[in-house]
Write a structure and sequence with these properties.
This protein has 246 residues and is of the alpha/beta class. It is 30% helix and 35% strand. It has two domains: 175 residues, Rossmann fold, CATH 3.40.50.150; 56 residues, N-terminal domain of TfIIb. The chain binds S-adenosylmethionine. The site of S-adenosylmethionine (SAM) has 18 residues, from helix 3.
Length: 246
Amino acid sequence: MEAYNGFARVYDYLMRDVNYDKWADYIENIFKKFNLRPNTILELACGTGNITNRLALRGYEITGVDISSEMLTIARKKAMDLGINVAYINQDMRELDIHEKVDCVLCLCDGFNYILEERDLISIYEKVYSILNFGGIFIFDISSFYKISEILGNNTYAENFEDISYIWENYFDAEREVCEFDLTIFMRKGQLFERVQEFHEQRAYRTDVVIDLLKQVKFKDINVYNAFTFESPKFTDERINFVCIK
Ligand SMILES: C[S@@+](CC[C@H](N)C(=O)[O-])C[C@H]1O[C@@H](n2cnc3c(N)ncnc32)[C@H](O)[C@@H]1O
């Protein structure tokens, strides 16, 4: 059962309350804070292109990478409808094969929580470091250890709409520090509902561990914020945003 397969068809509906314009504003505010105006951006785990397409519309030359071809099909369609040119590449970021250097690398909305092994995370950071131009900026967020272990973990969520219903059953494996998500989605198909089942796993990373991995990769200027602000994160903050300069 692959993640973000059937789920891709409902992803944008389930994320409809996320303010992606504000998210894109936050990214540009980070550029301003660090006195940068990147031209070229690579976005890892770009999903259905919600941020990718917005940044393309704002004039950046951006490439999106995602492991899910279904998510990318939706991203490409949205780019086409907007009349913008975005390169979408179907790749597992653990085997990132990009050779052109860029001014900025992004990975937003939990992308790195899907990387379950620290050795894979550090090898992605190494690759990011190598493809960034000097002075380039690496911005990413994670769902915090607190959110994954205490809020999502061992909890069940369900919503019931006219055309879509879902049940989201979570189990936090404290030994692996991984949350297992069992997702059952029902999507209307005429008079009937199609049932889609997916299994996702997200690793709960502690902020200190991530900082340590980034330092091992030679990133020197590492800044950590409670996401959407420039304040230091507290343990109970749910999204932690990292900004690193090469
Ligand atoms: C929560 S979605 C975030 C999508 C997008 N960044 C957004 O803000 O809406 C997580 C994304 O990570 C992608 N992903 C998970 N593991 C990946 C991997 N190893 N390589 C590339 N993409 C991955 C999934 O396919 C999915 O599109």
